[in-house]
Here is the input.
Amino acid sequence: MQKKLLIILAVNLWAGALFGQAPDTLWLADLDLSQMEIGWGEPHANRSIEGKTITINGRIFEHGVGTHAVSYYAINLDGEAERFKAMVGVDDDANQQRPSIQFLVHADRRQVFKSPILHFREAAFPVEVDLQGVKLLELMVEDGGDGIGWDHADWADAFILYRGVKPTARVTPKPEPYVLTPSPRPEPRINGARIYGGRPGRPFLYRIPATGERPMKFSASGLPAGLELDGNSGIISGKADAKGTYPVTLTAANRLGAATLLFKIVIGDQIALTPPLGWNSWNCFACAVDDRQVRSAAQALIASGLADHGWSYINIDDCWAIKPGDADPGLGGRERDSQGRIRTNAKFPDMRALTDYIHGLGLKTGIYSSPGPLTCAGYAASYQHEEQDALQFAEWGFDYLKYDWCSYGEIARQPSLEDYQKPYHVMRAALDRADRDIVFSLCQYGMGEVWKWGAEVGGNSWRTTGDIVDSWSSMSGIGFSQAGHEWHAGPGHWNDPDMLVVGYVGWGPNLHPTRLTADEQYTHITLWSLLASPLLIGCDLTRLDAFTLNLLTNDEVLAVNQDPLGVQASRVKQHGGVEVWVKKMEDGSLAVGLFNPNREKSVVSVDWNSLGISGGQTVRDLWRQKDLGVYRDRFSREVPAHGACLVLLRQI
Ligand code: GAL
Here is the structure.
């Protein structure tokens, strides 16, 4: 440390000798770091991203800023600053994983420094930048081209030598959220999927999602034998024994009129014929989840109107079971009862009562486990109890199981493809013995290119990536890297790029509004809809603000996600920083997403020949639910920074 001070003193003296007066030193860590954009977590002054001593390849630094790719920080200078210096690298707390990061510095929008791509356990790399005459200094950390996983980045010993006005962090005002979706009309409209699958002889539950003034009366013609509709609630339930495809006409009527929908019920071998839509507890409550919150989420799904747009699952994630060894008597204790049945912790006193409550609202509900002995958060899981647990989940009344690899990594230490598949085969076979339709959601972060075999092992969906967080680089990094996976998705088996990070999120107990801007959230929902991804809202539904509700209730956007053809969008253009994705719809129309991942607004255009179409096309803006007219050959739109435009093209 003393050596460092001496160096700074020497630099100051040198500069002082040159200009007659010594410059001042400002540590980067002393600026307002809340203005730093970051891909994961929070930036830390004089600590690593995980709050530890800044260490790069064993070398300890007392000063600096621990951040995470992708990161951006802008600093105002007055043209009289002299120099920016730092040592940069991957922090040792990245812990053997394979991060790769690159540091860049821009002075007045010109690149003046670019590090090599740096990895774990590589020596700190020096940065020295001349700031004479510069008014804007930008510090960036990029992800090295392979996503942001474990990209723990340090600006170690970073300081600015300045003479005039003390440098300050540039404050970027967060743009006000703006609403695009028109409000639902008071006349009835039936929303949601146009096809729904169930297996013969299994409990069937479907709440007709309809908007419009209440009271509303529902009717249905053509229902398979064994199913009944409650005309007041719009809930179809029962058990249908005969396999077949049943065209059903659903009607919803109120004092202002009636709406009908041609709906297909398919009693057969497949479920999840369209991607599941619902809520999951993890991105908001994480381990702070309890029975009361799950009930409140179910209530809120109905009360907010979300259920009237097709949102129907209420899923409990990790942390409902016993946590072996935990001193809290409400969490710790015996994992299983004398018959080997898995026990809940005190936060879930009666699972059956909970699922009954949720089913009573016409909603479905999910649970979570791991093929390993413990879940990711260290709670009891299904290893060597798979069949018993599958039957227990069915007996409790669950309709969805997220099955998360977690501690199975200790069972299969250097997994072969067969090892990756094995636990999912085992649980699939167990679920097949249960007397319920249970959506099987694989969660193993994309290992072994799961998209190639997720359907083969009986998954209804499979996570293709690590965990999402509410940052632009996390969301967009995951979303835009889904190109190429589309060949493996289809009705009954979907790629899952993780849950939504809109609304109040925070991985419990403390929540915050998502850090995504409005435009970033439009990109998120547009992209996930085009990707035919399961849509699981990750926020506290009891604190839904008007913007978030509006974002999640656009029936024309959701119809892209729920299209019965079940095609996942392909990327047709990636040029000049902008992207165009297209999804073929059942009726022959094309849903086209125009994306602008740039920091500045850009014009994004799409040529008909890149879409394999020609001639006049009507273009409809799905977010605004507005026809834009007939276009020939191409369509262009100015798209805000990090924003998206979603249109539907229909041949005239
Ligand atoms: C992770 C999973 C998350 C969440 C968490 C629970 O592995 O990707 O979505 O389920 O475990 O501990």
Q: What stands out?
A: The chain has four domains: 2-169, 189-267, 277-561, 570-651.
